Q: What sequence folds into this?
């Protein structure tokens, strides 16, 4: 999106208009609100319109129809709306799945309806053992779940009590186009992320 602005809108700004449609009340919902606000501010500075709280009702040939009845006209529509697990997961006998085919698990990553069956990563709808909120299907969540399960299964073999999986956020980084990024990584938060992003890109 931001790259499209950089290579297209800067050449013919009168012909290229970019809109971001978000069903949630803010973009980058997994990030702190301050970072969402900063990202939206940066996008506005690039003349990119952000429509939050706008649920898509239909994608049509000439644009996107919103649930509220309005329409965003567009020649090109890029769909980037979430993750859906493989359909075959919904066909596993006795295991509960959600509307996007993820296996429903508890805070120990134990599958609902399955005896000694566990799931992790993108295929699991997993709550955080500390906050109870559903975890996003990201690489760092899956990585921590893998380490947790390896340890927890060993504990089970040793008849040790089960412990819940608690996700420990390691930060995030999102490019907002050339020379701009937003994120939080260890002690680097907000605007300082631009420098960190450049360093990471060069490494």
A:
């Amino acid at each position: 999106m931001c790259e499209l602005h950089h290579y297209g809108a800067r050449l013919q700004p009168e012909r290229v208009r970019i809109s971001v449609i978000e069903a949630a009340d803010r973009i980058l919902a997994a990030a702190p609100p301050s970072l969402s606000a900063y990202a939206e501010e940066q996008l506005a500075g690039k003349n990119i319109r952000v429509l939050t709280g706008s649920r898509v009702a239909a994608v049509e040939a000439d644009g996107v129809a919103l649930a509220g009845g309005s329409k965003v006209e567009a020649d090109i529509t890029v769909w980037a709306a979430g993750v859906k697990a493989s359909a075959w997961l919904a066909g596993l006998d006795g295991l509960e799945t959600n509307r996007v085919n993820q296996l429903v698990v508890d805070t120990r990553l134990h599958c609902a309806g399955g005896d000694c069956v566990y799931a992790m990563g993108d295929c699991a709808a997993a709550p955080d053992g500390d906050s109870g909120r559903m975890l996003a299907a990201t690489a760092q969540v899956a990585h921590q779940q893998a380490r947790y399960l390896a340890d927890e299964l060993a504990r089970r073999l040793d008849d040790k009590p089960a412990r819940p999986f608690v996700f420990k956020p390691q930060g995030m980084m999102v490019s907002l186009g050339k020379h701009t990024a937003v994120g939080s990584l260890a002690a680097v938060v907000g605007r300082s992320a631009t420098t960190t992003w450049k360093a990471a890109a060069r490494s």
Remarks:
- The chain has four helices and ten strands.
- Residues 199-203 have pLDDT under 50 and may be disordered.
- The domain at 87-158 is CATH 3.50.50.60 (FAD/NAD(P)-binding domain).
- The two ends are 24 Å apart (CA to CA).
